[in-house]
Amino acid sequence: MRVLSIAILAVALASCDAIDSSDADVRILNASAIDFASVEASFGGGRQDFGPLAAGESSDYATFGQVYDYGFFQVVTDTDTLVIQPIDYVGERPVEEGRYTFRLTVMDGSLQSEFVRD
């Protein structure tokens, strides 16, 4: 009976849609006219410190096992701390393997994010 239960479980797991866990390389671009003293981000996993980014500069790419096309961002400037806080990733699918850039812009005191495939 135990062998039958294990066989049924194995078949059930094999028939489920697998979540694509392909590695994705992600960088942050400061597309603003102001310098960022620090940038922290999370795209569905733990937080990553991308460090300071001057206006118009990009971070190095960092590799992640799972990335969504939106995420949490905390940007510290000389005068403010700006945050984009997603609620959750329920029902979302991770992006495919590849290289991506999150373009961060500060406009009218608000942080905005755009996700692009490189």
Task: Give descriptors for this structure.
disordered N terminus, mainly beta, 118 residues
Model description:
The chain is mainly beta and 118 residues long. A four-stranded mixed sheet has the order 4-1-7-8, with no helix packed on it. The N and C termini lie far apart (52 Å). The longest helix has 14 residues, at 2-15. It is 12% helix and 42% strand.
Walk me through the topology:
Blueprint: H1 2-15, E1 24-30, E2 36-42, E3 48-53, E4 62-64, E5 72-76, E6 81-84, E7 98-107, E8 110-117
Give a quick summary of the entry.
This protein is mainly β and 118 residues long. The protein has one helix spanning 2-15, and strands at residues 24-30, 36-42, 48-53, 62-64, 72-76, 81-84, 98-107, 110-117. Strand 2 (36-42) and strand 3 form a beta hairpin.
What is the helix tally? Answer: 1
The profile of the biggest β sheet is: 4 strands, mixed
Structural class: mainly beta
Q: What portion of residues belong to β-strands?
A: 35-45%
Question: Low-confidence runs (pLDDT<50, min 5 residues)?
Answer: 3-20
